[in-house]
UniProtKB/TrEMBL annotation:
Keywords: DNA-binding. It holds the Pfam family MarR. Gene3D superfamilies: Winged helix-like DNA-binding domain superfamily/Winged helix DNA-binding domain. SMART domains: HTH_MARR (SM00347). It comes from Microvirga flocculans. It comes from the Bacteria. GO terms for molecular function: DNA binding; DNA-binding transcription factor activity. This is DNA-binding MarR family transcriptional regulator.
Length: 147
């Protein structure tokens, strides 16, 4: 058995130090943990909060528009909706204009929980933005450009 490396260790170090994807993933995981911890008292994860917030609209939302906003495929979105639907926080119903399509809306319970979660998000978001300092707006612009 040969000890020859097909990929030199220097390449591993290069990826570790320069890979934008790796650094974005690490930052996303750290932010997710921070928001998960903050939202735990209201029984939500950061992903569930984002999903509920995306449903906070004057009219029920189509699956496609929510999936696009959250950068999820429909299968993943459907799986994410189920526990929130079981908790009575949202309702999935047929679109009256097209019975094959589904619309999603927040229930009164979902709206109430979201109202309790927003101040938690605001405080956590303010703390995270403070870490970015004067660069917060620039960072947000770059992240939006990448997404």
């Amino acid at each position: 058995m040969s000890n020859k490396r097909d990929v030199p260790f220097e390449t591993t170090l290069l990826v570790r130090d320069t890979c934008l994807c790796l650094h974005a993933q690490r930052a996303a995981r750290a932010l997710a943990r921070r928001f998960d911890e903050a939202l735990r008292p209201v029984g939500l994860t950061n992903g569930q909060f984002s999903l509920l917030m995306s449903l906070n609209r004057p009219q029920p939302a189509a699956m496609g528009s929510i999936a696009s906003l959250l950068a999820m495929d429909r299968t993943t979105l459907t799986a994410a909706l189920k526990p929130l639907e079981r908790r009575g926080l949202l309702k999935v119903q047929a679109d009256p204009k097209d019975k094959r399509s589904r619309l999603i809306l927040l229930t009164p319970e979902g709206l109430s929980l979201l109202a309790r979660a927003v101040p938690i998000w605001e405080d956590t978001h303010k703390a995270v933005e403070a870490l970015a300092g004067d660069e917060a707006d620039r960072l947000r612009a770059h992240l939006l450009a990448l997404s």
